[in-house]
């Protein structure tokens, strides 16, 4: 007899025994549910948005809408530089149009070499926008 046949026979036997034995019911048990309770409603509380990180002097946060308006104009007409500081893999997968890739490590290297100004360009009136994937 194969193992499959033995298992099927064992299962059939157990099933038959269970069916023939039947289910015996015990005495009926009554449960007493607790009376429903009324809970007083609490007034709605205003949830405040957590404050963002404290920015260094001269640094501000740009809204999504303002950034979109600039990107729609283009970097020349909008007079801005947009830097994506995420890792190369994420930058290459997708980025905001007109973004240049500049990681934090690359920025630190340029700073040590005194070459930050060359990357940012000569026009000091251009808005420099840096963005990333959020706090880590």
Determine the structural class based on helices, strands and strand pairing: mainly alpha
Distance between the terminal alpha carbons, to the nearest Å?
63 Å
Q: What is the CA-based Rg, rounded?
A: 34 Å
What is the helix tally?
6
Instruction: Report the mean per-residue pLDDT as an integer.
Output: 80
The succession of helices and strands, N to C, reads HHHEHEHHE
Q: Outline the low-pLDDT stretches.
A: none
Q: What's the story with the biggest beta sheet? A: 3 strands, parallel
Q: What proportion of the residues is helical, as a percent range?
A: 25-40%
Strand composition percent: 5-15%
How many β strands by DSSP? 3
Q: What is the approximate shape?
A: elongated
Name the strands of the widest sheet in spatial order: 2-1-3
Keywords: Signal
Organism: Trichlorobacter thiogenes
Pfam families: Rhodanese
Protein name: Rhodanese domain-containing protein
What does this structure look like?
This protein is mostly helical and 136 residues long. The chain has a domain at 64-131. 40% of the residues lie in helices and 10% in strands. It is elongated, with a radius of gyration of 34 Å. The mean pLDDT is 80. This is Rhodanese domain-containing protein. Residues 31-54 are annotated as: Disordered. It holds the Pfam family Rhodanese. Residues 71-134 form the Rhodanese domain.
